[in-house]
Structures are given as C-alpha cells and as structure tokens.
Write a structure and sequence with these properties.
Elements (H helix, E strand, L loop, with lengths): L1 H11 L1 H6 L2 H25 L4 H22 L5 H5 L1 H21 L1
Helix pairs in contact: 1-3, 1-4, 1-6, 3-4, 4-6
Length: about 100
C-alpha cells in the first residue's frame, strides 16, 4: 500500500505527469484506484473502530482522489482540482505514517 501511495504521488506531480507516457500513467492510476478502493471497501469496513481502520479509510479516499488526478482531473469538482496540493500533501503524510510503522516492525 505504501509503495502505491508513493508511486501515485510521484506520477500525480505536474512535471512528472506531463512527461510520463499515457499508458503508464493510466496503469498507475488504475492500480492506485484499485488499492484505494481495497483500503476503503475491505480493510476499513472491517476495522472501522480501530486506528488503522480509520487510517485505511482516509488514505483510501485520498488514493482514489489522487488516481482521478492521474487518470482525468476534469472528472473532479473545481474545489478538489484546486485542493490538489493539499490532497497530495495529506497522502504523503499517510505514506509516511505507513512507512514508519512498517520500519518499526
């Protein structure tokens, strides 16, 4: 999951998004979308009362939004389009949270 978040963040950044070939960008967006939906629909739904269940829900929502930034940003509302830096920063925070926990294990 952490690797999906980091790769999605890299591809969603404007300089890299423009230079990345479309098939690769769409593949990464699709994988990020699937990972986000898995976080929301499977893990978070089973562990919603726990810290990691809520973290999975929040990071899943951010991954879904980021995947839409990658696939086709015009599908999002104007508010979410303008909030892209905040969304990416929040996803970076969740990626760091997951990475620190994995490292501590």
């Amino acid at each position: 999951m952490t690797a999906c978040m980091i790769v999605g963040l890299i591809v969603a950044l404007p300089p890299i998004a423009k230079g990345c070939p479309k098939p690769i960008r769409l593949s990464i967006g699709g994988i990020l979308l699937a990972a986000g939906l898995w976080n929301i629909l499977w893990y978070a739904s089973q562990h919603f009362t726990e810290f990691w269940g809520i973290a999975a829900f929040c990071s899943g929502v951010l991954m879904v939004i980021t995947s839409i930034y990658i696939i086709k940003a015009s599908w999002l509302s104007l508010f979410l389009q303008r909030a892209k830096p905040v969304v990416l920063l929040m996803l970076l925070g969740f990626a760091a949270l997951y990475a620190i926990k994995i490292y501590s294990l």
